[in-house]
Every structure is written in C-alpha cells, then in structure tokens.
Amino acid sequence: MRKKQARIPLYIIASLLFGLKTYIVYRFMFNIELDNRMQELILFINPFVSAFLIFAVSVWFNKPSRQMKYLRYTAFIFSFIVFANLVFYRQFTDFITLPQLFMGSNMTDLGSSILTLIKPYDILLFTDAAIIWYLSKKKESTLSVQYLKRGKAFALSMSLLLLAGNFFLAEMERPQLFTRAFDREYLVKNIGLFNYHVYDLVIHSKTESQRVFADGNEIPEIKDYIEENVKVTEKSDMFGVAEGKNVIFINAESVQGFVVGKEVNGQEITPFLNKLVEDEDTYYFDNFFEQTGQGKTSDSEFLVENSLYPLSRGAVFFTHGGNEYHALPEILKEEDYFSAVLHANNKSFWNRDGMYRSLNLDHFYSDEAYEITDENSVGWGLKDKPYFEQSIKYLQAMEQPFYTKFITLTNHFPFELDEEDKSIEPYDSNSNTLNNYFPTVRYADEAMEEFFDHLKQAGLYEDSIIIIMGDHIGISANHNRAMSMFLDKEEITPYDQVQLLKVPLFIHIPGHGKGETISTVSGQIDLKPTILSLLGIEHKNDIYFGNDLFAKNRKGYIALRNGDFVSDDYLSTAGMCYDVHTGELADVEEEATSEEEATTGTSSPCDEIAEKVELELSYSDNIIYGDLFRFVDFAEEKQVEK
Ligand code: GP9
Ligand code: MN
C-alpha cells in the first residue's frame, strides 16, 4: 500500500502560480495607477481570487485525467487572455472590450503593428502554464485528488467567499463600482482582468439583445411627440448671432449654483464668475439644472452633445458608447467646424475615447497631450491653471472655426488643494467635504479667469463664444447639515434638495453687449439646440429633447433623470408637488377628472407634466437601448429639407 502523504492538489498550486504571474503583470507590465495602500492590497488579492475561481472548477471532474486536462488547458487559455490584453494595452493603454474585439477598427489598427508589440520576454507569461502542464502530465497520480462531496463543497464555498470578499473590498474602495465607475482600469484594478471580462460580456449581451430586437418603427412616434411637445416653433432673436465663431465650452467640474454671488469667511467664493454675471457680453442662467445620472461628468457631456437624456442606471458613455448618435461634433463638421475635447485625464475614463468616436469628435487631447508632474498635480491630476495654460498651444494650432470642450479637474471630490493654491480659507462645519469645497471652487474660478486672459493674449477671444457650465453637484445630500448651516436654513427639505441641483451656466459672447440674467427654468438638455441656434444652424428633422435657451415658447419644464421635474410653476420630487416659487406644497385639486383619479380621489397639478416627463425619458431611453439612430438617415433628411 502506498504511504499516505499530505497532498496539495494541483488546482491549489495552479492558483498560486497563476495568481502570482497575473499579479506581476498587473503591477509591472500594465500601467495601473495605485493611489493608496488599500488599492495595493486589492490589486494583490484579486489575481489569486480569480485564479482560484478558475482552477477550483476542476474538482467537479471525477476522472483524474479530466481534472488534469482541464487545468492544463485553462492555464494556457487564461495565460493567453492576459497576453492578448497586454499586447492590446501596449498599443492602446486600455483593456480589451468585446465590442472592440468584434467590430472596432482598433483591432485592424492593431493587426499591422502586432509584431512590434510582442516582446521576446512575453514568453515568460506562459511559465506558470508550462509548469502546470508539466505537473499535470508527470505528477497526475500525486496531484490529482478524488474529491468527495466535502472537497467539492469546500472548493465552491471558498470560491464564492473569496469572490465576495474581493467585491466587498472593491466596493469599499470605490463605492458603486459596477454602476458608477465605469472605467476599465478601475474595474481591472479592483476585480481583476477575468471578472472584468465577464462583466463586459454581461453588459455587452444585455445591450446587444435590446439592440437586436429594435427595428426603428418607433421613430415616427418619437418624432411626432417631439414636433408637438418639444420643438419651439419660432427661431429666437439670438439665431445666428455667433455665426462662424469658435465655440469654447468649459465643463466646470462640480461647480454648483449656490456658490455664485456668495461669500465664505467674508470672502467672495467666485469673484470671476460674479463679474461675469454683471458683464454686458454675458448671459447668466440662474435657474439652470443639471440632469445627470450615475455617469456624472460623462452624463453631462452626453446631455450637451446630444440633447438626449443619460440612462437611469450606469453611464451611457460606457454602456452605449458604440451607438449611432447625431451629436454636435457631427452636425458641426457638416458646417466645416473642427471639434476637440481637451481633458487631462486617462482617455479611457468613462470610456471617453470610445464615445467620442461615436460622437464623431475630430480629436481628443487626453493626459498624453499634457506635461503632468507631481508639482503641477493635485487630487485627480493636473491642476486647472497649468491645464489651461498648456491647452492654449493646441487651440492656437487648431483649424478654425472650432468647437472645443474643456473639462476641469481640480474641483473634484474630495476637493484637495495645495496650500500655495488656496486663496480663501475653508469653511468651518462638521463636513470637511463642504469646508474644502470653497477653496477649490475658488481655484477653478481663478483658473477660468486666467484662461480668458490666455485666450485674449492668443488672439482667440474675439472670434469665439465661451460657455461655462457646472457639470453636476459637488456636495451631496450626505452633507445636508453643513449645507443648511451655510445656507442659513433650518433644514434641507426635498424641495431644497432639487433646488440645489442648479449649476451655473454662462454664455459669453465678446462684443455682444446685451447680456443679462435669465431665470426661466432650463437645463443641460437645452445646450445642443442653443449652440446650434447661436451659430445659425438649422436642422429641422433632428431628434432631441431640449429647447433653445433664448426661444420664447420653450416647453416650460426640466426633467430630472429620476423622473422628478421643475417647471415654470411646479417642482415635483419624492411624489410631492410643490409650488416652485414658494416651496409650499401645491394644492391638490379636489375634483377627480379621470378614471384613475376617480379611484384615488385626488389629482395633483403636477400630473400633466409628470406624464410628459415619463414619456420623454422613456423615448430617450428607447433611442439609446435600441440604438435607434442607426435607422435614421439624418443627412438625407437634411437634404430633403433644403
Ligand atoms: C474624470 C472627470 C471626473 O475624467 O471627468 O469625473 P466625475 O467623477 O466627475 O464623473
Ligand atoms: Mn464631474
């Protein structure tokens, strides 16, 4: 009889070897940014968790030879996945996604240069697979185990436990990782390459199936709705005032409306923006709402470029970055505009690179276009002042007219700022977030002022219009106590919470002289039609949900992504209908007029708009989920129109 010895099953050995290899690749071959110890820890753990998940499956094969075969082949296949991602990464600084693999032109680009991307030492990536292969052949008898129920249960529960532990840590490090932070680097960093691929596969099949079943027959209904309920019937007086001018759009990170005109510790928070409010060349919209969902900055970009709503779950930039759109860059290209986004962050963040291709953007100046050092960075990266300064050379070299978007970064949660950049002192409350918000807003304000000066010096100012928009709120409801103290209110009610979604919007037209403050209810959905109208571009058959901000007969309400809305008269949130001017609950109409109301006995003055809001949001969702614009030939329709 053979001596009974303690045997380590091959799947455990394989998990350790493969886990270690993957960790080395993550750490030293991909350029993954690690900001703190926790991230280091997660990055170290997740390769082993994934490896265990993969190899522990072998316990379900009863025959030792099958077990061994499974381990051999999976070790090679998964090593190949790591290798393929590495080669792809060397070219694109990004991880492979399924849409890219199947239909992107990325892969064809890669095709020609693939040999230059493979290094001789890449063969080492298969070391573990080779060892596993060897052991599985030579040591089958010692390393294979006849698993009893207990062994199987152990492997399965261990797999699930490790996975749950990994996800828990990841969620702690990056809350709402799966729904909010759709950056591929974040996903890989937190849950590993393989779980990321599974996630990508799930998202991809879900969106693909919705796309597959769509046939575009809903388009006429949507168009009718828009004709009747959305589009303004008359051109505004501002139509064409900026014809042929450059458009410089500043997406001001987390700048919220409540700071404009306010002071902290006796100091103005936004002296430059305050000056703009009074400026005769500037229109200031003080009743302008952000309408973003979980996609935050990217959602605000989506709203501006398309005048469609972002999605209620996830970031549309990520989930539907490959759709057909009919966005500003595409329309402006027909008018010989050159379009670019300048943003000093990783190009795959929010899948910007993917979405920008779909929007037909001509060029994206991402972090690679900037000189970023420890000295000129804080928090999320390059500080706004050097960012604007370094951007000017690109603007100067750009073909005119251009449509450019600048996205600032310094005023991003958690609002870090170097001492030397602090012009005002933090606030003093129980919320450090709110306290530190003011100095970073002030920094952004100064950076924008400097940018205006750069534009003047570069001779670009006169021929441009400059739009500044806050992308979304910076201070969430978690800081309501501190916020109510700052606003000198007893509490922040649901009504106030919606009012806090206001972000500033400035439209600055050098030499115009007729600027004023406009207080009609408006939102990010309105920018596309507004910009087109200012530039004197008409596109009667375009499909969108906003209105020209300067038009007289606007639709009169702004839908928020969660179905809440603000109208000229009412504000609807959390199932309540308020008088928008007083903040008091609006009177419930006693007399029931419809069947449904007859059963509940009441109807609210908000009902009529609420219905429209719901319909509008669902039309917009259907356009995105079904990728319906692939059934519309906007160019042809424009021809017919002429
Ligand atoms: C990142 C920047 C911030 O590039 O746009 O994104 P956010 O977290 O505000 O959506
Ligand atoms: Mn943002």
UniProtKB/TrEMBL annotation:
The active site is at T297. It is found in: Cell membrane. Substrate binds at H412. The chain crosses the membrane at residues 9-29, 41-61, 73-92, 112-133, 153-170. InterPro entries: Alkaline_phosphatase_core_sf, LtaS-like, OpgB/LTA_synthase_biosynth, Sulfatase_N. GO terms for molecular function: metal ion binding. Pfam families: Sulfatase. It is a multi-pass membrane protein. Keywords: Cell membrane, Manganese, Membrane, Metal-binding, Transmembrane, Transmembrane helix. The keyword Acyltransferase does not apply. Residues 245-537 form the Sulfatase N-terminal domain. Mn(2+) binds at E253, T297, D471, H472. One of its GO terms (cellular component) is plasma membrane. Belongs to the LTA synthase family. This is Lipoteichoic acid synthase-like YqgS. It comes from Oceanobacillus indicireducens.
